[in-house]
Design a protein that fits this description.
With 250 residues, the chain is α/β, with parallel strands linked by helices. 41% of the residues lie in helices and 15% in strands. It has twelve helices and six strands. Strand 3, helix 3 and strand 4 form a beta-alpha-beta unit. The longest helix is centred in the N-terminal third of the chain and has 12 residues.
């Protein structure tokens, strides 16, 4: 009997482990999924505000993922965390899938970066004023699944609003590359398959991010899911699974 294939999964900010249900079902096979939940999300421990959010998240990843190399899949903020882990500890990753990675620092100087800075102003303004409910609505307008905020179930809106402060907690990694993932030679040293997936209707900055990262990674491929937005692994799980299955288990 063949051994189960392990796979690591890191959800987006404001998400939870259950976000991967459709993707795992679409992959099929006999899998052992390690669905990591980030601080303050799902059933994970709360964010310790005396510490950097990303450092706490990395500790959770390192403690909950196997020490042997496995395929690692991340979405949005989770994709950037997965990339950081792969750069810092490549011996724990056998292949990498980065879905709509919001690594804004990689796109600095490009048109998409300037646009996302402008598009995030309403969210930043509401956060500064501690108007968290409205800030959550503004954030969802840019990074949601394309549906109307008012049509979301009350439970979903409450989950997002109660965690909206965690978005800015990830800024040092996403906007400033505080951990130095983009330093010369680090991306070029990755020696396993890296597959980028984005939605055809996602924010334009994502294409700039993927272009910049992909040009530096030796074995990188890029697949776009037509008609999908930023939440592509949730809204189009079968197409994402089909896009990556040939490079996931190597």
């Amino acid at each position: 009997m063949a051994a189960k294939q392990s796979i690591g999964l890191v959800h987006c900010a404001l998400g939870k482990a259950g976000n991967w249900r459709g993707f795992l079902s679409a992959l099929g096979g006999d899998l052992t999924p390690y669905q990591v939940e980030l601080p303050g999300h799902g059933l994970a421990e709360d964010w310790d505000r005396s510490r950097d959010f990303t450092e706490q998240a990395m500790e959770i990843l390192l403690s909950e993922l196997p020490t042997d190399p496995i395929p690692l899949v991340g979405h949005s903020f989770g994709a950037v965390l997965a990339l950081r882990l792969a750069v810092e500890r490549p011996y724990r990753v056998s292949s990498l899938v980065l879905i709509d990675p919001v690594f804004f620092a990689a796109a600095r100087g490009r048109w998409g970066y300037d646009k996302v800075v402008r598009d995030m102003v309403p969210f930043r303004t509401k956060m500064k004023a501690s108007q968290f409910a409205t800030a959550a609505k503004e954030f969802f307008a840019v990074w949601g699944d394309g549906s109307d905020w008012n049509d979301l179930p009350t439970e979903t809106k409450t989950y997002i609003m109660s965690r909206i402060e965690l978005i800015e907690a990830g800024d040092p990694l996403l906007w400033d590359d505080l951990s130095g993932v983009l330093a010369p030679g680090r991306l070029e040293a990755l020696d396993f398959p890296v597959t980028f997936v984005d939605g055809g209707e996602t924010h334009p900055v994502i294409a700039d991010v993927i272009s910049e990262l992909g040009d530096r990674i030796p074995d990188a491929e890029w697949v776009t899911v037509p008609g999908a937005g930023h939440m592509v692994p949730i809204t189009h799980p079968k197409l994402v699974a089909k896009a990556v299955e040939g490079r996931l288990f190597v």
